[in-house]
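Q: Structure tokens for this one, please.
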Amino acid sequence: MDREHVGKWIDAATLAWAYSGDAALRAKIDPVVAELISTQEPDGYLGTYAPDKRFGLYKGADWDVWSHAYNMIGLLTYYRYTGDQKSLDAVRRMGDLLIATFPAKKSILSAGTHVGMAATSVLEPVVELYRVTGEPKYLAFAKYIISSYDEPGGPAIVKSLLEGRGVDKTANGKAYEMLANLMGICDMARVTGDQRLLRAVTNAWGDIVSNRLYPTGTASMFEHFPQDHVLPNSTADDVGETCVTTTWIQLNLKLLEVTGSAQYANEVERSLYNHLAAAQNPRGDDWCYYTGLEGTKKYDKGITCCHSSGPRAMALAPTAAYLQGAQALYVDTFETSRADFSVDGHEVTLSLDSGFPREGRETLTVHAEGGAFFSLRVRVPDWAAPLRIEGRDYAAGWAEIPSKGWRDGEKLRISYRLGGRVIRGEYANYSRSAYGWGPFVLAADSRMNPKGDAPESLQMDPKFAPTLAASSGDLVFLAKARGPWDADDQPVSLVPFADAGSTGGSYGIWLRSAN
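A: Here is the predicted structure, written as tokens:
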């Protein structure tokens, strides 16, 4: 079995432990890390292939570097939150082995499938290893990986994107592997200041958002980026691979860190609340490999790349709720929550008491030691604009309270637009519309509607937005639609896409539009 799964598990579990402080979880993580490190060979190898079959020496080993990449990622995350030196040493040994192998013995492209992108995706942990250690050899190796893109027959990722080609026409269009490389390129731009690299990544981002992104925050068809606006809805078309959803979230988080632009935070929100959550069984122990926008959900208990990828993105959600920049704290969530910071040596806590997702109001309380000066920025997505803070309206982007000395216990009263909305379909969905509520995309679930009409047979009037049902439990919304034999509109219940189909019924977000 490829070892990518244990690396992914360590990454996700460590993030979950760092957020929750769960001692029982930590007690599971530590022995797994120790056991993994104990199997590392003296030369640094931490894979599953015999010596004569490693690093692409035969076709079945073209995921060997890929597996090392995830072991490096998992152990680096563990080191970041625990300071465990043995984990960092193990990553160093892997990095040194890769440097001794590529390009001294062969091109790294020869050790990975999908035009070499499976192997070159190791760029992300290599750059992180350089950031942690400051050792020039790791930066030099990262530069080699990027240069390998332009070798004969290589994926030419940066060159292609800078020349304006779409991600579907870059390399072989394989979505998961390309996004994994884009994350490494983004990290490289951050450590080197190379705007050319950042521009390649933002070109890819713009192309995906404009041409290949579903309203639920995922991409891919048969695991590849399809042609412009080819966005089938059925799971039969292998849409919305969970690995793609995960790496899309991760890429947006990296772009948010580099640029500070709220547009990337908006995409993280869209994906987390919709497609990522929709791929997970409500029990939390099972995932879909693909998650269509209509049909039925096919949870898969097998050990797959998606089964080990999904939890990584879910565990990242708390890390995106609040952010800290130079003399600025960012509120990137609407959920009731709190976060602790240190600002120039002063302890600061932000506490959010929120009515979300039922009411568009919240109170943000600032607890700060005397002398703490910072600005405060609250994200305003399109669905919430205008957002009002203490009587002042803010458009989409970041609502900024200028830097000042904060009084301990100072409160900010915030209100924003939260309600039903209609999402009009385009291209293949031009005659259909979907409903939304705040950041949520809604779906009709056959098991929630007594008549049992298939969602795709329902016709809705796009002039009317859904309303929230009076309930203290799960989120349920009410709208009107008519089935194939109805003379008039009838009540129909809708749920967030994340909840739809979780009990085995058919579901769909797109309904036929009356006009």
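A few notes: The mean pLDDT is 94. The radius of gyration is 24 Å.
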